Amino acid sequence: MLQHTFCHIPGLGPKTERRLWQSGINSWDDWRDPPPVAMKTACPVEIPELLASSRQALAADPSFFTGRLAASEHWRIFPHYRDATAYLDIETTGLAEAAEITTIAVYDGDEVTTFVNGEDLHLFPAFIDRFQVLVTYNGKGFDVPFLERFFRIRLTQAQIDLRYVLARLGFKGGLKGCERGLGINRGALDGVDGYFAVLLWNEYRHTGDRRVLDTLLAYNIEDTVNLERLAVEAYNRNVAATPFAAELSLDWPVPPMLPHSPDLEVIDRVQRRYRSGW
């Protein structure tokens, strides 16, 4: 989709992009001067130079595009850099600056990797550095700045924050609300949320029960793996509104083997123990 994209050009929005497609300018290689449609862009003479830079950026610079596209349009980079993408979600002890990260789940489209506070959390910065794109839900507002503050690092990867992509498609209400709107069922983890994840961590630290940690990690992983499904769904819905749907639509992803499973007895026990605090 990237090579069909023109709305990363300053002053050239989606409406003008559609008019370009309708006039036969379907890709960067089709560009011609003067352009066949009127444009509000202030410097049309710079467009060929920007398109040349875009071709160079295709190889390994997704930030070139996310830095020029609206956050709701970042879906456009998804297939091109999919092999270098990490789906990321964190769990924390709260929202305050003094809060700590409890677990992190990263899914690369093939395998799930988890990190746990007190065990191997310190390995996360080196691990995440191998990816070029991070896919999150509300990562721009929460996960990424929290990680940067906690580890005292800078995450320079391009980001696809599905909160903005899905909101433009009419799906809101947080990650769980978007999942429900798109027919994604969490099974045994239905009803478990971020607050309950804090309770699970507290229970684990108090009891040392590995079943509790497994349940927390299963929840964290579910958030992460579902991001790929949401990314594909959002991409396909956006591509369906272009002339390129037939050739560019993506197959529904095959779910991975999950390394952790929720324990129903643990969920019930923690719910009963903390019910008065809900």
Task: Please give a structural write-up.
GO terms for molecular function: nucleic acid binding. Residues 86-233 form the YprB ribonuclease H-like domain. This is YprB ribonuclease H-like domain-containing protein. It holds the Pfam family RNase_H_2. By secondary structure, the chain is α/β, with parallel strands linked by helices. The chain has two domains: 2-59; 84-277, Ribonuclease H-like superfamily/Ribonuclease H (Nucleotidyltransferase, domain 5). 42% of the residues lie in helices and 10% in strands. The protein has helices spanning 14-22, 47-57, 63-66, 124-128, 139-151, 162-168, 174-181, 194-207, 210-239, 245-248, 264-274; strands at 85-92, 101-107, 112-116, 133-136, 158-161. It has a five-stranded mixed β-sheet with strand order 3-2-1-4-5, with helices on both faces. Strand 2 and strand 3 (112-116) form a beta hairpin. Helix 8 (194-207) packs antiparallel against helix 9 (210-239) and helix 8 packs across helix 11 (264-274). The protein is elongated and about 70 Å long. It starts with 13 loop residues before the first helix and ends with a helix.
